[in-house]
Hints:
By secondary structure, the protein is α/β, with parallel strands linked by helices.
Amino acid sequence: MKKVKHFTAYIFLAFIASFAIMLIVLPKQSYSQNEKHSLAPFPSFSFDSLFDGSYFKGIETYVSDHFPLRTAFVGINAYYNLFMGENGANGVYKCKDGYLIATPSEFNESRCRQNTERLAGFADEKRLEASFLIIPTPGYILEDKLPENHEKYHDDEIFGIIKASCGNADFIDLRSDFNKNKSDTDIYYKTDHHMTTAGSYLAYLSFCAYKGIVPVSDFSETEILTDFYGTNYSKSGLWFEKPDEIEIRRSASNNEYEVVIDDVDEKHTYDTLYFYEHDGNMDKYPVFLNGNHAVVTINNKSCDNGKRLMMIKDSYAHCFATFVCENYEEVCMVDLRYYRGSVSDIIENDGITELMYLFSAENLAGLSDIAWLK
Length: 374
């Protein structure tokens, strides 16, 4: 009996030792494609970090990020949660028809109102025509896909506050158009929180209809990028879900574009709206305008109508911008999460004629970065 007990202990110690050896000898990555975040480096030693506890906390984070077979264990835990009767994992619902939909964010009514009033007041201050184009959350529009037991989404409250607080700005309510078209249009990706190209085009058509603009409707080419795994996939750990496809629609107008990406400390100019180097990644959404940056300016060199649009936005705007740039001489996109400079200076220097505020409903309600608008 003692030999059996000792044998079990030896197996356990060998198991622990093997993982310790793998942690030391296996090559380390700086970024996790599956989980879409940078992995912690080994912490630098100093006496200050030793005495304040941050050194050991850094080691703990390092071990957690680089633990051998981490991805497999994350997946096992996620599917175990489903087996035990939970309706999702890590803040993501496992839904019908292959959808992974993020659970609702905490709703801050006061911040939502403050953000809306700040944006509306800025437009009045600059004496510019402005519009709110707010994207409903996937869980609100696709409620029929959600598990039976789910938390309440706050879109109706958010949209009500925007309508009451947007002042002289136009409020373009997408809820009706999205609900009318959701049965025959995949408006959102199944593994990601963003709108699909079809969903972005639907939002573009709604914007054009409200503004009396003739939308681009003729596409010379459509491309499909396969094996797109979005942020909800990465958060959930549900690794056996099927990937999405990303559609790229090229206008038959064949307009010539100059795209200037300004990250404050460096600036680069390109002649394309699409960045195919991201096709090799699991997350392919940055194929549209190269992902998140402080300021992105699209100059339509084939257009001279004098219309210059500034979009103060989040990442929901990226695919949308590839359509709306057809109708403007310039589209300047500012992301207040990364830009801390003067938006007023850009408006003056670029001769901006119109403002658009394009955010997801939950982002508009929760962002603190709008306080940087000046």
